[in-house]
Structures are given as structure tokens and as C-alpha cells.
Design brief:
Layout: E1 13-17, H1 20-23, H2 31-37, H3 53-66, E2 71-75, H4 78-81, H5 90-105, E3 109-115, H6 121-125, H7 134-149, E4 155-160, H8 164-168, H9 178-192, H10 205-224, E5 232-243, H11 250-266, E6 271-282, E7 285-286, H12 306-315, E8 322-327, H13 334-353, E9 358-364, H14 391-401, H15 405-412
Parallel strand pairs: 1-2, 1-9, 2-3, 3-4, 4-5, 5-6, 6-8, 8-9
Antiparallel strand pairs: 6-7
Helix pairs in contact: 7-10, 12-13, 13-14
């Protein structure tokens, strides 16, 4: 392995990411809006106005560009585009096109995700991804989006972490309020006026995998037939899976959680790799972090080296290019975010030096936002919710401006290990 970090190529994508439901606010036609507002609920608080990014996106994108980042990854909200089944909102489609235009005006590439966990409430009411015809409905939505704005998209993903329900099956069940979960699902179905509530987070991983992989391939083909020429792939959640003990189920977990989705990506244009930490896997499943290790606000172990490990693992299974589409930590201490970025990017640079085809690093997230059932407590952002710029934003921006030269120079001077 090279002892010095390489300089990243001039067209490398350096950016930050958000998802619509977490930042836009008032996503009232979403299934998650329903789940947040009923009682009992798993959500500690509702999203409400979130970060009001729906209205503030022009200044937010300009701020991202001013920091030195050249890419903005955001999601298009299906519940806004198709608030009622078969009825598409021209105003919502125009809104997202204006976001793409704001990216272009600021010299920022737009990386869009079509589905980032939240669904239209009518889709959940028919059973969500486990319902007959779910793939057809997603393909229709994807085609409508691509036809309206495909000429302005730089990179697109169909799904964000579609393997998450399978990953959640490995989390120790202790502490999960199952009674609350089942009551929430029943109340949500009643609120929608149906007998079912097909929320993505609560879906059967095996049924979801079959339907969503088919939907990915069909949607990609439909989008390719529309205006524009851009790579289309999918983003999956990866952990640095470390075996503990001779009877560890690590290999079983990897096969069940990652392989089918990597195969789907390998038949596409790229794989988006989303990494936060490592996971210790024993003979009965996932183990808690070791006592005394540093934890983030999400309870994850502080382990930026996971990115390098996961990139190498992914490159060993797919032959398509890789993008790091999410990587970061939840912490009130921004100095730890800087340290995390430093070590994660250094690991990624080692991979590039060894010839891995990695084309971008997108940090999660642009601003502190609504972190699903955990509400507003976890702080993942380079910016605060009120747009105060943290030192980590300037740190990543400097790496981006210099295409990694500043980090490489630091390594050469033995300031980093």
C-alpha cells in the first residue's frame, strides 16, 4: 500500500446529504407524519417544520457551495409528488426542479434519491411494499420524476438503504417496546382509514427485498428512457461486520443483509456505500459495543475506520463504481466530527491509492435535523438547525477545495497516523 495519500481526481464529488422528510417540514401526506402524531408512538417528537428546507433551499444550497462542496445529495418526496394515488402534483415537481436549478446556478452537482424511507400515506394504507402492485406504482412515480427533471440530474439513486429492515433484524431485541410498536401500527391504519399500515421500517425484509429489487431494475430502465444521461444506482447500509468467537454468524449476516442488494447494484451503474460504524457479531447475532468504548449519540461505536473496511468489502463483490453516499457521526462535540472525517477520508484515500474506483464522498448530513424516532436530539450536521456553520463544515470544505491535497500534506508531514 502507498504510504502517502493520493490527491483525488478533479471530478471527485465532495458533498453533503439530506432527506426530504428530515429537513423539509410539514410533509403531511407522508406515512411517517401519521406515525409521529398518533398515540402511542415510537417517535419521541413529531417533525413539524423540521428545518424548513422546503422554503430555504436556495440559501442552503448556496451555503453548501460557499463551503467548497461541489455536490448536494437530497431526496425527492414521493408523498408530495403523488399526494393521492394517480394524482401528481405539478407544483411539487416544479419545486424539485427549482432545487436542481439552484444546484446548477451554484456550480453544485445534484445527486437525487427517489425514496428515502417515507411513503405517501395512501401507499402505506394499501400495504406498502408488501402490497400487490407496489413495484408498478413506484416505477410510475420514478418515470414521472425523470421525465420532468432528468435533464438536470447528475447522479440518481432509486432507494436509500433498502436493506435496513434486514439489518434491523440483527439488532438485539432487548429494550424495543413491541407493544407500543404494534399499537402504533394499528392506530396509524385507523388514522388513514384502512385495515393496514405498510411502513417501510416495519416491513418483512424478505418480501421487501423481492419487491424493491424488481422495482429498482424496472424504475432504472424507465428513467433511462427519459431525457438526461446520468448514472442510476442504489445506496445500501453497510457496517464493518467483525466476527467475535469461532461460531460467529458474521458470514450468515453478510449474506442475508448485503449480497442480494450488491448484486442488484452490480447490474446498475454504481453502488452507494453508507457507513457509520463497526458491529461485533457473535454466535447469536449482534453484540453490544464493548464496555468503555466511545459511543456517538446514536449509541454507535466511534469507528471511522469502518469506511475503509466497507469500501474494500464492497469492491470485492461489485465491479461498478462506488460512491460514499453517507458517512458521519451524531455528536454535540464537533471536534469529534472533525476527527471522524479525518480518519474516514484517510481510509477512503488508502482505497483510492490501491486502485478502487471511488467517485465521491457525501457527508451525512448538511444540517442537524429530524432523526426519525429519535427526534431532534442527535446532531449529525455540518451546520446547526439554524444554519450556524460548525468548524467541521470548514474542515470538509477545505478537503474538497484542495481535492484532498491538504489532508495528503498532513500525512506526509507525519501529523496523522
Amino acid at each position: 500500500m502507498m504510504t502517502e495519500l493520493p490527491l483525488f481526481r478533479e471530478d471527485f464529488l465532495w458533498g453533503a446529504a439530506t432527506s426530504a422528510h428530515q429537513v423539509e417540514g410539514n410533509n403531511i401526506n407522508s406515512d411517517l407524519w401519521i406515525a409521529e402524531h398518533i398515540q402511542p408512538t415510537l417517535f419521541v417528537e413529531p417533525s413539524l417544520d423540521a428545518c424548513d428546507h422546503y422554503h430555504r433551499f436556495p440559501s442552503d444550497i448556496r451555503l453548501l457551495a460557499d463551503l467548497g462542496l461541489n455536490t448536494y445529495r437530497f431526496s425527492i418526496e414521493w408523498a408530495r409528488v403523488e399526494p393521492e394515488r394517480g394524482h401528481f402534483s405539478g407544483a411539487a415537481l416544479d419545486h424539485y426542479r427549482r432545487m436542481l436549478e439552484a444546484c446548477r446556478e451554484n456550480g453544485v452537482k445534484a445527486m437525487v434519491t427517489l425514496y428515502h424511507f417515507s411513503s405517501p400515506r395512501w401507499f402505506a394504507g394499501m400495504g406498502g411494499w408488501e402490497a400487490r402492485g407496489a413495484a408498478d406504482l413506484f416505477v410510475r412515480y420514478a418515470e414521472r420524476v425523470a421525465r420532468h427533471m432528468g435533464d438536470s440530474i447528475a447522479v440518481a439513486s432509486t432507494f436509500n438503504e433498502p436493506n435496513l429492515p434486514a439489518l434491523l433484524e440483527w439488532v438485539p431485541k432487548t429494550g424495543i417496546p413491541l407493544t407500543t410498536l404494534f399499537q402504533m401500527r394499528r392506530k396509524a391504519a385507523k388514522a388513514i382509514g384502512t385495515g393496514t399500515f405498510g411502513c417501510f421500517f416495519l416491513g418483512d425484509p424478505r418480501k421487501l427485498e423481492q419487491t424493491m429489487i424488481a422495482a429498482h431494475h424496472r424504475a432504472r430502465a424507465a428513467m433511462k428512457a427519459c431525457p438526461g444521461s446520468y448514472p442510476i444506482g442504489l445506496n445500501i447500509s453497510l457496517q464493518d461486520e467483525q466476527a467475535v468467537g469461532a461460531k460467529s454468524k458474521r458470514d450468515t449476516k453478510c449474506a442475508k443483509v448485503y449480497h442480494a442488494w450488491m448484486d442488484a447494484a452490480n447490474a446498475s451503474d454504481f453502488l452507494g456505500v453508507q457507513v457509520y460504524t463497526r458491529c461485533r457479531v457473535g454466535k447469536s447475532g449482534d453484540l453490544a459495543p464493548e464496555e468503555g468504548v466511545e459511543l456517538t449519540q446514536m449509541g454507535y461505536e466511534f469507528w471511522p475506520e469502518a469506511l475503509e473496511t466497507c469500501l474494500r468489502y464492497a469492491a470485492g463483490r461489485v465491479s461498478v463504481p462506488l460512491y460514499v453516499t453517507e458517512n458521519g457521526i451524531a455528536s454535540e462535540d464537533d471536534s469529534r466530527r472533525i476527527e471522524y472525517i479525518r480518519r474516514a477520508v484517510a481510509g477512503m484515500a488508502n482505497c483510492v491509492a490501491d486502485g478502487l474506483d471511488i467517485r465521491g464522498y457525501i457527508h451525512w448530513t448538511l444540517m442537524d435535523n429530524f432523526e426519525w424516532i429519535f427526534g431532534y436530539r442527535p446532531k449529525f450536521g455540518l451546520l446547526t438547525r439554524d444554519r450556524h456553520i460548525k468548524p467541521s463544515a470548514h474542515y470538509l470544505g477545505e478537503i474538497a477545495r484542495s481535492h484532498g491535497a491538504s489532508l495528503a500534506a498532513a500525512v506526509r508531514q507525519n501529523r496523522l497516523k
